[in-house]
Amino acid sequence: MSSANPPSDASLRERLIDVGVDLVTTDGPAALGLREIARRAGVSHGAPRRYFPTHRALLSAIARRGFAELGERIADGAGAAGPPREQLAALARAYVGFALERRGMFELMFRHDLLNSEGEEEAADGPQLRESTVPLFGMLVERVARCGGSEAPGVTAAALWANLHGIAQLWRWGSLQLAMGAPAAGGGTPDAELLDRLVAAALDAHLGPVAR
Description:
Layout: H1 9-27, H2 34-41, H3 48-51, H4 55-78, H5 84-101, H6 103-109, H7 130-147, H8 153-173, H9 175-180, H10 192-207
């Protein structure tokens, strides 16, 4: 007889999320079925329902892991020493870099049609997904405001975010490579110099060029 203790509810809940994170990383959001997650976690197909009342609740818990990682990267970049514009550029590079490195997770994180953005039907002991996403946008707004030159930093930040998201998505689809004649085919990650140029162009478009 094994002397090992059975996993606690908390540890099994985390295992289901861990499996989901691995699955979305390798196979994308379309692979995140409850039965497949349960199978890979080594539990019955009905077990996830004990911890996540709906499929959306489990997907939201997986997405929160992605927002936590993205938040750490953004905080590292935005917290670096230097003028506000340089900090904002570092934040933007961190965002696009995450999108290109963690493609499946990035796609899931912004599919709010699949997620419980307001926290409805999520586990009672888990934070609402909104609590993971809104502070990141707030950080972007703050950095834009510190750069000055915008009477509506929230609107400017939203437009810049859309621009950065578009850069990442179009690169993943191969559209930017085609338009720019870049040598990398498919969804490969652009080299650092090209990424810097794209980010700088996005900042110039929304904040104005840096005075020379």
